[in-house]
Amino acid sequence: MLDVALRVERRRFAVEASFQVGAGERLGLFGPSGSGKSTVLDAVAGVVPLDGGRVVLEGRDLAGVPLWDRRVGLLRQRPGLFPHLSVAENVRYGIRRRPDGDGGELAVREAALCERLGIGGLLSAYPSQLSGGQAQRVALARALQAPARALLLDEPFQGLDAPLRAELVHLVRDEAAERALPVVLVAHELAEVQAFAERIGVLAGGRLLQVAGAAELVRRPATAEVARLVGYVAVLPAGRGGELVGVHPDRVRFGRAPEVGPVLEGRIGRVVPHGARFLAEVQLAGQPVMLGCDLVPGDPGAAVQCTLVDPPRFGPDGRLVGGAAEPEPRPAAVGP
């Protein structure tokens, strides 16, 4: 179990986050660039000091524990390999000493891990001889081979091609389950976090706004602010006592279906291909929004009705109405 309640002062704002990650559980931290995601990981790893709160791993308070003894693995987007060490030496770097009797088992595990990562034939190579994807796989092998009891991933798959990214995601998920590791992944692409994590926390301006299941987060964002961060293109009046509804491009039907959700009227603007589907610009409540559709809904300028499929509803204060979303986490306590 990784139990975090921290506060870190930064130049523009303080970063505050409180969450727990169970053994073998995967938590994603999502938010725009500069929201404090990497600061949270650095604070848990001990790279930056806390200004309040604490980090507890398997019942052990990590206050004052040096980096090498925290047993927290941190993997960043940049591999950070040692250029003077071979691939094999880089992979083994996190193992300061092999306990008596365990050397053979560790060697077998190392060989199996390197083969699965596709770097088994590169063990004698040096970082300057590796491609970007190969270097990232070596860094991942080093993080997984080390005797860490928690794993922190700071956008480690960004820039990798889709098949390799999917392969590494599956590998880390398997390792987390097999070794009962709490894992925290940071990314600014929601789809990447959803593909990896069981729960997702949304950060903005140093605040952890909501923590929820990977599907629940998008369907029931706790506030209009969270809704915009997770892909809602508009939050519009629903015509009843100041209530607002979220408009998500993937949760709209063209046509009238009031039994499914509220119906809004608008006019079609441009329509552009989007993969195997289309994106149609529609003026709703005087605001242009891009909505997904399987077929072109009509000619530019034509009137159209759009049904929002079970949208989240927000009160005038911007908070979710009638939902079961997790409340906003409490700020970490200030002080030691």
The N- to C-terminal Cα distance equals: 21 Å
CATH superfamily of the largest domain: P-loop containing nucleotide triphosphate hydrolases
Instruction: Please write the string of helix (H) and strand (E) elements.
Output: EEEHEEEHHHEHEHEEHHEEEEEEEE
Q: Count up the helices.
A: 8
Q: Structural class, from secondary structure content?
A: alpha+beta
Morphology: globular
CATH class descriptor of the largest domain? Alpha Beta
Give me the count of strands: 18
CATH topology of the largest domain: Rossmann fold
Strand order across the largest sheet: 6-7-8-3-9-10
Could you say what the CATH architecture of the largest domain is?
A: 3-Layer(aba) Sandwich
What is this entry, summarized?
The protein has 8 helices and 18 strands.
Can you describe this structure?
This protein is α+β, with helices and mostly antiparallel strands. It has two domains: 2-219, P-loop containing nucleotide triphosphate hydrolases (Rossmann fold); 233-311, OB fold (Dihydrolipoamide Acetyltransferase, E2P) (Beta Barrel), CATH 2.40.50.140. Helix content is 23%, strand content 31%. It is built from eight helices and 18 strands. It has helices at residues 37-45, 87-91, 103-116, 132-145, 162-179, 190-196, 216-219, 224-229, and strands at residues 2-9, 14-21, 26-30, 52-57, 60-61, 72-76, 150-154, 183-187, 199-204, 207-213, 234-237, 244-247, 252-254, 263-274, 277-284, 287-293, 303-308, 313-314. The strands form four sheets. Strands 6-7-8-3-9-10 form a six-stranded mixed β-sheet, sandwiched between helices. The radius of gyration is 23 Å and the shape is globular. The model is unreliable at 97-101 and 324-336 (pLDDT under 50).
